[in-house]
Amino acid sequence: MTKMNCRQAATDLLGMTREALEELLQNLGEPRYRARQLFAWLHRGTSLDMMTSLPKELRRQLAAIARAGTLQLAYQEAAEDGAVKFGFETADGRLIETVLIPHRNRTTVCVSSQIGCAYGCAFCATGRQGFTRDLTTGEIVEQVIRVQTATRPQRVRNVVFMGMGEPLANFDAVVTAIRLLNSPDGLGIGARHIAVSTCGLPNSIQRLAEEKLQVGLAVSLHAATDEVRNQLVPINRKHPLAEVVNAARRFATMTGRKVAFEYVIVPEVNDTPAQARRLAELVRGMAAMVNLIPLNPADSSLRVDVDSAYRFAALLRKRGVEVMVRRSRGGEVLGACGQLRARHIKKASDERSPVRRSNALDSLGSVSDSPDMTEQKCEGGKGP
Ligand code: SF4
């Protein structure tokens, strides 16, 4: 059996709840308290052979049937602003990305939830790569553990599901991962310090609210009318704005948490006075915050259009909307979801596609050629 197949074949202990570990250990004739010890070691990123409070024989038995994690570090790149992008290879030979975003007094980890994505948003390199598969609970949890290990003694305080993939399309694995990350026996990351970002899946937003997790919700809105949003976020054709915003409104009511609406500014497309008027109407009366993200031009010789974002922010503020202009972090490491992976794949295949367009909306199509493309994901200021 090859090394890769070994990694695939064994049970991943990192994806197991305390209860599941208890059952596993009971079947091996061990007392229940061993599960707590094992869980704590696992979530500290310890390998089975170094779990010294567990009997040697138990460690040997576990090593024969299971693994403590399946990811291998493929690459790591740092930006001047301190953001670090980790590329991990999964057991089946795929690449996923995780971004560490340090702040003055907190550290945020942006995790991936799927390999590729089926939703094809206009800003997103991951969407253009197509969908391969959902990540397992263990693969999601391990991203945080691996970054925590790399960043010690600094503690990871926030986790945002804003990396590759649509987290609400991998609902069960994501929710279980949140519970595991939240466990006081493990990393103990507060639910209020975890945020899930979605392109707008109303039924899943409702389900998330019903989980009573107290996590934050970020919705990639990017337009205030269906006509414009259909072009930027294709799922809008199935779930139009009104449906998405109503689901977000219910989420805010049910959880008592303010919803973040992400809005990448595409000059002269979604930053008009009419769009501002409509956006203000949509969020009226809701506990909500609009995060405006200036669009970086596909042509890196052009200036990032921050002015448009500030102009649009002023229009919204005048109408009573809580709004902030956010700047991306980790631009140097291609902070947007999927972009670094896209570049590594490109390097490997030595592919180039020098697309150059002038229209702002058209330029979204060449995101993977732009190392500094502003993202709606893994954006430093977006952490809860
Ligand atoms: S922005 Fe998110 S939902 Fe949209 S294509 Fe990219 S990964 Fe998928």
Quick recap:
This protein is of the alpha/beta class and 384 residues long.
Task: Summarize the SSE layout with pairings.
Layout: H1 3-9, E1 11-12, H2 18-27, H3 33-43, H4 56-65, E2 66-67, E3 72-78, E4 84-89, E5 95-102, E6 107-110, E7 114-116, H5 125-129, E8 131-134, H6 137-151, E9 156-161, H7 171-182, E10 194-198, H8 202-210, E11 216-220, H9 226-232, H10 241-255, E12 259-265, H11 273-283, E13 288-294, H12 306-318, E14 323-325, H13 339-349, H14 360-363
Parallel strand pairs: 1-2, 6-9, 9-10, 10-11, 11-12, 12-13, 13-14
Antiparallel strand pairs: 3-4, 4-5, 5-6, 7-8
Helix pairs in contact: 2-3, 6-7, 8-10
The chain binds iron/sulfur cluster (SF4).
Structure, described:
Helix 2 crosses helix 3, helix 6 (137-151) packs parallel to helix 7 and helix 8 (202-210) runs parallel beside helix 10 (241-255). Strand 12 (259-265), helix 11 (273-283) and strand 13 (288-294) form a beta-alpha-beta unit. The chain has 14 helices and 14 strands. The strands form three sheets. A ten-stranded mixed beta sheet has the order 3-4-5-6-9-10-11-12-13-14, covered by helices on one side. The chain has a two-stranded parallel ribbon with strand order 1-2. A two-stranded antiparallel sheet has the order 7-8. The protein folds into two domains: 3-67, Orthogonal Bundle (DNA polymerase, domain 1); 72-382, Alpha-Beta Barrel (TIM Barrel), CATH 3.20.20.70. With 384 residues, it is of the alpha/beta class.
